[in-house]
Structure formats: C-alpha cells, structure tokens
Amino acid sequence: MKIQPLILRKDQERRLLAGHCWTYSNEVDTQATPLKSLEPGQPVEILSSHQRWIGHGYVNPHSLISARIVSRDPNHPLSPALWLQRIHDALTLRERLYPHPYYRLVFGESDGLPGLIVDRYGDLLCVQITTAGMERARGEILAALEQVVRPKAIVLRNDTSVRTLEGLEQKVEVVLGSPEDTVTLIEHEQEFVISPLSGQKTGWFFDQSENRARLARYGVGKRVLDVCSYIGAWGVRAAALGAEQVTCVDSSESALQRVAENAERNGLADRVARIQGDAFEVLRELRDQGQRFDTVLLDPPAFIKRRKDEKDGTQAYQRLNRLGIEMLEPGGLLVTSSCSFHMGRDTFLRTVQQAGRRAGRSLQLLEAGQQGPDHPVHPAIQETAYLKTLFLRALPAF
User: Fold this and answer.
1) What secondary structure, in 3-state letters, does 326-384 show?
2) Would you state the pLDDT for residue 307?
C-alpha cells in the first residue's frame, strides 16, 4: 500500500532535519498536500518542497501539530516491527537504570514514540495515548507491549484533556487482566500504595524520583512542610530521612487519606500530619500562626499550561515561593519545582530569587535538578525538558 506524501512549504524542513519531530499545520504546502483530504492518524511520508525525504510519520489535519515523525529510515515505516524495536530499546534503558520495575517505560518523543506514555508498576502497565496516530496503531502498540514486557495487566489511562486537541474521547479502560485500583510500588526503599485507575496522571509522579533521592544529601531537619503533597512521596521520604514532624498539605481529601496509609505502611504515622485546603490559603494561615520549618517542599501542578498563562502563572509561582520562604528557619532548605514547560529554568530561578527578596531573605542555589532518566530529554525537542527542581538555602538578607 502506497503511503501518502506530506509536502512542506519552502524552507520548513530545517527544524525537522535538526532532529525535531513535529510539523505544524502552517508549515505544510496545502496546495500540494490538501490536509483536509487526510484522515486523523493516517501514516505519511514527510517531504521537503524539493522532494527531499525527511521521515515516516502520521498526520492529524485537525490539530495544530499536523504531523509527527516516527522513523527517519526510509526502510522502516510505521509497523508492528517498529513498535517492537522501540519498546524493546526503551525497556533496555530502564532495566539498566532501576533495580525495581517501577518507572516510566515510554516517554513519548524521547523514546521515538510520539503520542505514547507508559508507566510501569511491576506487572501492571498504565498506558496513555495522546495522539490520533498512536490511537490508530493502538492494537499493534498493545500487542508489542505484551510481547516485550509480558505484563499481567494493562490499563489505558486515556482520560487526559490533551486527547481533546486530537479529537479523541477521554476514558479509562482495562485491556488486559483484572487489576485492582490499589498497587504497591517501591521508591528509595519506601513502599507506597497508589491508585493506577483513578489517581492523578497514572497514579504516581516518577519524574521527581531522582530529586526525592537528593534530599538525603542535604538533611531535612526536624520540621518539614510538604505543599501539594499528593499521596506523600516527598513527605514520607522526609520522615524516613529523620524528620520528626512532617506536615503534608493538599486540596484532595482522598490524596491525604493515602498519605496517612503510606506513612503507616512505612512505620512513620506518628511523624506525618495532614492539612486539607488550598495551598496558598493554608500557607498564609501557617505563616500568620508563626509556624517555622527546617525544610519546605513545593511541588505544585503546572501554573503555566499555555503561553498565554505565562504572566499569571509566573505571579503564582512567585507568591507560592514567597510564602514558603517566609516560613523557613534561617539556613533552612527550600526544594521548589515547576513542571511548566513554558517557564524556562532561568526564568524559574529568577522568579524564586525575586520571591526570596520579597520575603527578606537571601538564597543560595545548591543544586538544580530535572526529571529522572526514565524521562530522557530529546536534545532537539526542548519541550521534553519540562521539569525544574531547585534546592536552595534561605538565609537572612545580605
């Protein structure tokens, strides 16, 4: 079967030749390739205006990102063999990195599988398909995962809003086995119970694992505040490192209930307290009560999801960090994160620095972290480098 060509406008191939894999709709020569005649997810061969072959990919005429390159080898189009090879390569990396089978197994473009996310919880795989191209190949992808990983259960967590941009419905499906919505994972020798069918994302945030490991180097002191704690990954880790009193703050009652379960599971229940409420409101109340902490952990959801959110999102990061810094003891540790791709590392550091000045403190940057190696960064696709985690020491102003 002949593969449909997708022809670009003049000089629109440079970014692709440099390694990026996205083609935007305004980069396509719609006279030579009428986008409206193509089906969402249809395989295409991407060509320059001079007919230079660039890659095999798939198209979605209804999306701003109209095509994604999957293979740059003319002899390897989208096929079951290609999916098998890519998933095998992804598994090889993770098995080299991790002693336990708990990690992000596939990270989209960085693993040569744009539109596919797979998190592994032992014998359970949580799969997220975010593009029409991967949805079209869904059966082949699932078959490849079964063949390479041999899981006992697979859950499709296709309840992400990103799918609406591709014209796809949102739902959660069990496609293999009969998994329960309670799974135990191991991270840094602590055990955590998660909810892979109903939790945030796929139930856990593997991207911060390496940064949570770094806490041991700095010491957390006696009192720790964990803001936007979700189910306690940071807070329980801090208690395990010797904190005598950890306060976890989250807006979700069910997440905080899981914090209690995870603290109990690790023999740390007497050290971990919970406060339900809006992060900003709770922080202001704690500050006004005169509460002080040796370590403050800030791991909020993305405040900047779109470029137009940049101004308001930057102000939100500054307010959150100022409140956190104001409650730190002199010499205390601030661990603060942003998962907003649209806020670069330098901008985030500058925003936290401004928060420190407004709080009357001087900050020392001790270390800057990113997502772990199971979320590898594609050097040509800056969008894959989204997580920033800063370790800072807060001192009186100087």
Assistant:
1) HCEEEEEEEEEEECCCCCCHHHHHHHHHHHHHHCCEEEEEEEEECCCCCCCCCCCCHHH
2) 86
Give the residues across from 194 on adjacent strands: 183
Nearest to 115 by CA among 60, 72, 155, 75: 60
The verdict on whether 248 is a catalytic residue reads no
Residue from 21, 228, 248, 339 carrying the catalytic annotation: 339
242-275 confidence digits (pLDDT tens): 999 999 999 999 999 999 999 999 999 999 999 9
| Sequence-ordered list of residues with C-beta below 8 angstroms from that of 287, at least 6 positions apart, any chain | 323, 326, 327
Who contacts 180 (Cβ-Cβ below 8 Å, separation ≥6)? Answer: none
Q: Phi, psi (5° rounding) for residue 207?
A: -65, -20
d(C-alpha 77, C-alpha 65), whole Å: 20
From the candidate CATH numbers 3.30.750.80, 1.20.1050.10, 3.40.720.10, 3.40.50.1820, the one assigned to the domain spanning 80-179: 3.30.750.80
pLDDT averaged per 10 residues, the chain (length 398): 91 96 96 93 96 97 96 96 98 96 98 98 98 98 98 97 94 96 95 96 96 96 98 98 98 97 98 98 97 98 91 96 98 97 95 98 97 97 96 95
CATH class for the domain made up of 4-71: mainly beta
Q: What are the extents of the domains in the chain? A: 4-71, 80-179, 184-396
Give me the architecture of the 184-396 domain, per CATH: 3-Layer(aba) Sandwich (3.40)
